[in-house]
Design goal:
The protein is α+β, with helices and mostly antiparallel strands and about 575 residues long. It has 3 domains: about 280 residues, BirA Bifunctional Protein, domain 2, CATH 3.30.930; about 140 residues, YbaK/aminoacyl-tRNA synthetase-associated domain (YbaK protein); about 100 residues, Rossmann fold, CATH 3.40.50. It has 16 helices and 33 strands. A hairpin with a 2-residue loop joins strand 15 and strand 16. The protein is globular, with a radius of gyration of 29 Å. The chain binds one RNA strand of 77 nucleotides through strand 15 and helix 14.
Length: about 575
RNA sequence: CGGAGCGUAGCGCAGUCUGGUAGCGCGUUUGGUUCGGGACCAAAAGGCCGAGGGUUCAAAUCCCUCCGCUCCGACCA
């Protein structure tokens, strides 16, 4: 490919609306261009990489025994009503009507449609197990699209679905995808870690997310070096080592109400009283499927709403509005606590660390007042204790007892063992060898293809630009032709291009009438894995210069023209 | 949904407070000098100043409404 014929626009300045490096680089290197918030046009360079990621995904899916299909983006509402997700997806799903006023969704995922298709074709255990996949554009009306392709309204996703005869059989399908995912990300040059994850709204038995570690990641992940435990913070568990007690005899400590004017947050009250935040019990009123519930956690901790939801067996938990808080406790937010709330029937749950807590400080259920010397067992009616807080750095691993560290990650893949949530709803059954009808067991598996592309950049760039792995680079080799108007020099470049392309290597020849510095800057910005400089000066010195993007100038090699193709292949080979 | 900021040439921005001929840098085009890490000189093209309404002799600038974008927050008491 000649650069002068390619639709490439590079920018010297960072785009004003990009925050993170990978987003800035995608725009500056001319991979994509924003159309509107969360919507992008993929330009030729970006499209080439997107296609290469897709090719890797296809190869690994096929190798794992999955079969490619493609389903409509425009999906009738009836399918979504069957599973109940027409309602539960809420405003996150794009909806529209056709001219006959029939409702449709723009597919945010495809469990319903695939289940409907499979059940219409599969009727015997002889046809199972079965895994199908598609690579298709997905639509989600995100609350706040951001960071370019990391969270956009329209994105390319590979979604796979497995169907099995039993929960045990489904484990094999799950593991096949799990292992395929490891290969996909490794081939994209990514270090992706599988971590235990919550199943969220999609439902199911258990799941793993694949994360690429990056400071710009939107998820927190707890890692344990001791045993290798890794889990999303939504899910991560900890071992409680110490309970919140004053160390004094609770009998000698009587509750004492103290005025704390104007102090609402734990931080403010803690400062006001000169006592550390950990001596407090933080009490929050949640609306749990519409019923108020008080949740108590150590004062320096945050509630994990996902854990809370599971603990209470609830469908939806959200912080209660101010009016509900006042009615339930008798005080406004900032002064509520578990001791004698206005509503004596108010259910109260607490984090396991608070079991037996003595000498602590709680809100008094009276505006601008707190109570100290509280013994939770003696003074409050805690209904139940459980693990309700978000794990933080240094917390003790529940499995092996070693301290955990928290890192940030970009979720590039997610595998779920779904069970029968959708196959029950759609009555997707097969006949077993006893002629009995049984419900199929499902798994679902997603890879954010467009997000993966950006994650590669986030993980692999430097101050000069992108550093593409050879497997997904838009072009593997850039020949910087320094004297395009000199016929003999140009011939060397184009002959080399032809020789490399004959061996299946992607090459772009920078034949622009630009000064060398401009070409070098652009080659570094776009990040071609191998750069070859062909110029009159180099040829006079004995050949062409070969340099890998990831090496510095000192590793540049001058090789004779006759050996150039071999040297380039060798340089590429080292990049895998 | 709440708060803040921003919409001026393809990109990055100034000009708005204090109304008076629409500017700068990069990029683009032409000519010339250069030529190994984003050169220089000269000339040129390119704007409904986000949209609509109002005030005024006169509006990018003041007022109102709407739209879009970005960031923060979405109740952690």
């Amino acid at each position: 490919m000649k650069w002068t014929k390619a639709l490439i626009q590079t920018l010297r300045d960072d785009p004003a609306d990009a925050e993170i490096d990978s987003h800035k680089l995608m725009v500056r290197a001319g991979l994509m261009k924003k159309v509107a918030g969360g919507l992008y046009t993929y330009l030729p360079l970006g499209m080439r990489t997107l296609n290469k990621v897709q090719k890797i995904v296809r190869e690994e899916m096929d190798r794992a025994g999955a079969q490619e299909i493609v389903m409509p983006i425009l999906q009738p509402a009836e399918l979504w009503k069957t599973s109940g997700r027409w309602e539960s997806m809420g405003p996150g799903m794009f909806r529209l009507k056709d001219r006959a006023q029939h409702d449709y969704a723009l597919s945010p995922t495809a469990e319903e449609m695939v289940t409907d298709v499979v059940k219409s074709i599969v009727s015997s255990y002889r046809q199972l197990p079965l895994t199908v996949y598609q690579i298709q554009w997905k639509f989600r009306d995100e609350i706040r699209p951001r960071f370019g392709l990391m969270r956009s309204k329209e994105f390319l996703m590979k979604d796979a679905y497995s169907f099995d005869t039993s929960l045990e059989a489904a484990d094999a399908s799950y593991m096949a995808m799990f292992n395929a995912y490891k290969k996909v990300f490794a081939r994209c040059g990514l270090k992706a870690y599988p971590v235990e994850a919550d199943t969220g709204d999609i439902g199911g038995k258990f799941s793993h997310e694949f994360h690429v570690l990056a400071d710009a990641g939107e998820d927190g992940i707890a890692f344990c070096d001791g045993c290798g435990y890794a889990a999303n913070l939504e899910k991560a568990e900890r071992k409680v080592c110490a309970s919140l007690t004053s160390g004094k005899d609770s009998a000698s400590l009587l509750m004492e109400v103290i005025p704390t004017p104007g102090a609402k947050t734990i931080e403010q009250v803690s400062k006001f009283m000169g006592v550390p935040g950990s001596a407090f019990v933080k009490s929050l009123v949640y609306s749990v499927d519409g019923t108020p519930v008080m949740v108590c956690v150590p004062g320096d901790r945050d509630v994990n709403e996902v854990k809370l939801k599971h603990f209470l067996g609830a469908k939806k938990v959200e912080l209660a509005d101010y009016e509900t808080v006042l009615r339930a406790t008798g005080a406004n937010a900032g002064s509520v606590g578990p001791v004698n709330p206005a509503d004596a029937t108010l259910k109260i749950v607490a984090d396991q660390e608070l079991k037996g807590a003595k000498g602590c400080i709680v809100g008094a259920n009276k505006d601008d007042h707190h109570i100290k010397n509280v013994d939770l067992d003696r003074d409050a009616k805690i209904g139940d204790y459980g693990d309700l807080v978000i794990v933080r750095d240094g917390d003790i691993c529940a499995k092996c007892g070693k301290p955990m560290v928290i890192k940030r990650g970009i979720e590039v893949g997610h595998v779920f063992k779904l069970g029968t949530k959708y196959t029950d709803a759609f009555k997707a059954v097969y006949k077993n060898d006893q002629l009995a009808e049984q419900v199929m067991v499902m798994g679902c598996y997603g890879i954010g293809v467009s997000r993966t592309m950006q994650a590669v950049i986030e993980q692999s760039h430097d101050k000069d630009g992108i550093v593409w792995p050879a497997s997904v680079a838009p072009y593997q080799v850039c020949i910087s032709l320094l004297d395009p108007d000199k016929e003999d020099v140009a011939k060397v470049a184009f002959d080399l291009e032809a020789a490399l392309e004959a061996e299946g290597i992607d090459v772009i020849v920078d034949d622009r009438a630009e000064r060398p510095g401009v070409k070098f800057k652009d080659a570094d910005l776009i990040g071609f894995p191998v750069r070859v400089v062909v110029g009159g000066k180099g040829l006079a010195n004995g050949g062409v210069e070969v340099k890998r993007r990831c090496d510095d100038k000192s590793k540049m090699k001058l090789v004779p023209v006759a050996e150039a193709a071999a040297a380039i292949k060798e340089a590429l080979g080292g990049l895998a």
